[in-house]
Write a structure and sequence with these properties.
With 355 residues, the protein is α+β, with helices and mostly antiparallel strands. It folds into 4 domains: 109 residues, no CATH class; 67 residues, no CATH class; 40 residues; 105 residues, no CATH class. Strands 1, 2, 3, 4, 5, 6, 7 and 8 form an 8-stranded mixed β-sheet that branches. A hairpin with a 3-residue loop joins strand 3 and strand 4. Helix 9 runs antiparallel to helix 10. The radius of gyration is 24 Å and the shape is elongated. This is Beta-carotene 15,15'-monooxygenase. Keywords: Membrane, Transmembrane, Transmembrane helix.
């Protein structure tokens, strides 16, 4: 089987990091290699705090994700080092936690700089956001449009937008209702099990958090609280996905079709760029080549069914993913709760556009 470039990079990354971790593990566990010199310990620290983060950047993060994830890679490397290198050896290099804290501090300052840029532009951002909110109640869409107008081409701001969207949808919109004074909205989640899927994931994460936190707390409090933090964030993300699916139906007006699937995927399609909308008549599974140029707008479900509609585009359109990641797509497959109404409204507007 021929692997594409993306998969080769992932396999290379997993192979190299596994090799580093395994060899270092053997280094401190085989009696024949004892005693370990301080220079060898320093080499292990460099492996975990420098080599692994560099591999993570070049093989995983670069051109795809925010530099914020480099900080997570550094923390993960330090965590692995803490487990593998015996404490009596780590004590020789007491400065290591400070290096990690300093690096994380630099990333924190970078986020503060982003916040500063938002603050100085806040009056303009607020005015533009309120104007867009009068047209619809889609928080993520309106905020993204606001940033595109006043703070364009800033990748870090879109990372901030993704994080803000998670907390907004999970914590602050429980009483919100869909409001679309200009256009027609189409729900896409009511006839699926998407809510049940995320409720199940929330339930599993909470149970795992309680059990693992109790076990890890007796062994290492720091690791226990780090894992607890990520599990809490995971629960908030799952709740945000439920709320986003409920509050951001597909939006159709006289100029565009806006599709947002939960928190993670969205596309704004000008009506003049729609080549054809038809009922889907293809196979249930898509090839890897098809998935590269397709926006699968279906939500997660227990039983993945064939899409209802196949929407073909005249030209490639930008598909927006979380954390500012973008790619191109020339085809969209999707489901809606009212398929016939959706088809009729799209065709009617396409007819008017052609006239």
């Amino acid at each position: 089987m021929v692997l594409n470039i993306k998969n080769r990079k992932i396999y290379m990354y997993l192979l190299l990091t596994s090799l580093i971790i395994f060899t270092n593990f053997l280094l401190y566990r085989l009696p024949s290699l004892q005693p370990i010199s301080s220079e060898v310990v320093l080499g292990s620290i460099i492996d975990f705090l420098l080599v692994i983060p560099i591999l993570t950047y070049f093989l995983i993060i670069r051109k795809k994700y925010s530099l914020k994830y480099l900080g997570l890679a550094l923390l993960a490397g330090y965590g692995v080092a803490y487990f593998i290198i015996p404490s009596n050896h780590m004590q020789q290099y007491s400065f290591v936690p400070y290096v990690v804290a300093f690096s994380e501090g630099l990333l924190f300052l970078l986020e503060l700089y982003i916040l500063y840029k938002i603050v100085i532009q806040f009056p303009k951002l607020r005015k533009e956001y309120k104007r867009l909110s009068s047209e619809n109640s889609f928080f993520q869409y309106n905020l993204k449009k606001t940033l595109d107008i006043h703070l364009p081409k800033n990748r870090l701001l879109y990372v901030f937008l993704s994080e803000l969207s998670v907390f907004y949808y999970s914590l602050f919109c429980w009483r919100k209702k869909v409001n679309v004074p200009n256009g027609i909205s189409f729900t896409y989640h009511k006839k699926t099990s998407v809510i049940a899927v995320y409720v199940m994931l929330i339930h599993a994460t909470v149970i795992e958090s309680i059990g693992l936190h109790y076990l890890l707390h007796h062994w290492n409090e720091i690791i226990a609280y780090i894992l607890l933090f990520f599990n809490i964030y995971g629960v908030l993300y799952f709740i945000g996905e439920i709320q986003a699916a409920r509050l951001t139906p597909y939006l159709l007006d006289d100029q565009k079709l806006y599709l947002q699937t939960g928190l993670s995927k969205s596309m704004e399609i000008p009506l003049e760029n729609i080549k054809e909308l038809k009922y889907f008549d293809g196979p249930e599974k898509f090839s890897k080549q098809e998935l590269k140029t397709m926006y699968d707008a279906r939500v997660v479900d227990f039983m993945v069914e064939k899409p209802m509609f196949d929407l073909l585009l005249k030209e490639e359109q930008t598909l927006s993913l979380m954390y500012g990641i973008k790619r191109k797509a020339n085809r969209v497959v999707l489901n809606v709760d009212e398929p016939q109404k959706f088809l009729n409204e799209i065709q009617a507007r396409l007819t008017n556009t052609e006239k």
